[in-house]
Amino acid sequence: MIIELPYGKGYIKYDFPDDKVRGVLSINDQTIIEQPEQEDIVRKALDGPEGSKRLSELVSGAEKILIITSDHTRPVPSRVTMPIILEQIRSSNPRAEIRILIATGFHRASTAAEIKEKFGDDIAGKEILINHDSKDEKNMISLGSLPSGAELQLNSLIKWADITIAEGFIEPHFFAGFSGGRKSILPGIASQKTVFGNHCSRFIADGNARTGNLENNPIHKDMVYAAEKAGLAFILNVVLDKDKRIIAAFAGDPVKAHEKGCRYLSSIAVKKAVKADIVVTTNGGYPLDQNIYQAVKSMTAAEACVREKGTIITVAQCIDGHGGEAFYNWLSKNRSPAAAAEKISLIPQQETGPDQWEAQILARVLQKADVIMVADKKSRRYVENMHMRYACSMEEAFGIVESLNKKSEDIVVIPDGVSVIIDDAEDEV
Question: Can you give the residue range of the structural domain that contains 125?
Fold first, then answer.
C-alpha cells in the first residue's frame, strides 16, 4: 500500500505492509469531484453572505478600512482571495484608505520574501501591509477583560479603522476547536499578555478545548468575545483540500459565517478513531510543517488513535527548527515530559509564559506514546533534546521501532493530521 505523505513542498512515498494497515484516515477527497474555479467559489460566497450585507455595501461609507489576514504559517490562498476582496471594496469605495494587517499572533513577523510568496508581487508591492507585533505594547489598546478574566489588548489599528474585516481559512484546531473566524483577532492581533491569558494551562487541560469542539470551549469563548469587542464586521473564510486549493468559502457575519463553515468542515473531516500500535501522521506539508512547534498539531490526531505506550511517527520537514525557544526549553530542560507537564499545570493564568501551551500538549502526547520525527537533519538535535527520536526517512523510523522491540502488529495512517477531526468517543473497534 503506497501512500504519499506530505513533506515540505513535496511528498514522501512509502510502501506500507497491506496486512498491518488497519485504516487510512483522511478528509473526504473533494478533488475527485469537479469543482468550480477557486475564484468563482469565493465570489459566490461574497455575493451571498451569511447574516450580513454584501461587502461592497458594508464598506461603502468607510474612509479607513482594515483587512486582517493570516501570516506565513497558514496556507490561506491570499493570492486568490485578497485581490477579490480589494476589488469588491474598491468597486463601491475607490477612495478608501486600506491597510492590511498580518495576524502573526505570537509568531515571528513574516519576511518580505514570505509576503511576496503569499500575496503575489502586485499586492506586496502596491498595498500597505503591516506585521502585527504582539510584544509592541505601545501599539496596543485595552478593551477591558475577557470572560476568562485576562486583559484584552489588541492592535491599535482597530481603533484607526472605520470598519474591520478579516480573511482566513477553517481547519480543525487542536485546542480552539477550529481555526478561522474569531482567531483572526485572538490570537491574531492580540498582545502577548492577552494570548498568554487565553492559552493558560487550565484552559489547555480543559476537556472541551479539543479538536473540532466549540461547545463550552473556554478558549473559543474568549476568542468570540475578543472579535466582538474589536468590532470585526465581516469575514471571508475558505476550506482547502489536500492540495491547498479552495473547495468551499463562507462570508458574512463573523459568527454565523464561521459556524456554517465549521459545520461544513465537520461533515467531511470527522473520522472515527481506529486504534493501533503505530500511528503515522503529517502536518500536511508546507507551510504547516516548518517547525516542531507546528508539528504538535498533527500529533494530537495521532494521539487519539495510538494505543497506550505505542508509537507515533510524525512526518514534518521542520526546516525552521523548533519554532520557539521557550517551547523548546520546556521539554529540553526538564528530565521528562511528565516533569514538564507537572510544572506547567501549576502555573496560574496571570503567569502564563511564552509557548507553554504547545509544550503542555506535546508533553501530554509524549506521556502516552513514543514519538519518532521524520524531519530535516538540521532539526535532529532539537528533536532528540525534546524527548523524541529522530529519523531521516520512513525506513529509518520503522527500523527504530524494531530496535526498541516494540509491538507493531498494526498501523494507522493519517496522511494529513491537521485536516481531520478524530472522534475517539467510542470504544476500540
Answer: 32-268
